[in-house]
Amino acid sequence: MGSIEKNFSGNLAADSPELALDAATSRVSGTTGCNTVMGSYTVNGSAFSFGPLAGTRKMCPNMEIENYLLPFLSNVGSYEIKDGRLFLYDKADKAKYIVFSKVKPA
After folding, report:
1. Please, which residues have CB within 8 angstroms of residue 78's CB and are 6 or more apart in sequence?
2. What is the CATH number of the domain that holds 68?
3. Confidence of residue 3 (pLDDT cuts 50, 70, 90)
4. How high is the pLDDT of residue 104?
5. How many domains, in total, are found in the chain?
6. SS3 breakdown of the chain: % helix, strand, coil, rounded to 5?
7. Would you say residue 49 has pLDDT above 90?
8. Beta carbons of 65 and 15 less than 8 angstroms apart
9. Could you tell me the residue range of the domain that residue 47 belongs to?
């Protein structure tokens, strides 16, 4: 499981998205910081993409993170792992990316 490193105006500790990628099943699950998400992903070399993601639809006080994250995830085209962090890059513009840090299970 990993947590995102984007700096948002809300309380990042409470609102922090987390994703768990299961390599055995190519499934993803986690939270946007507000709603839960689940779906599939595909890896082929450095190419990476998410399949359709399903999730809950509750309204939260701070939707900024979710409103950024969900559209971004649908446009991921590649990945890289550097220094124990997962970089997910936009398929049209590799200068746009999000970073997840590995966290220890609770």
Report:
1. 46, 47, 48, 88, 89, 91, 94
2. 2.40.128.270
3. very low
4. 61
5. 1
6. 15, 45, 40
7. yes
8. yes
9. 2-102
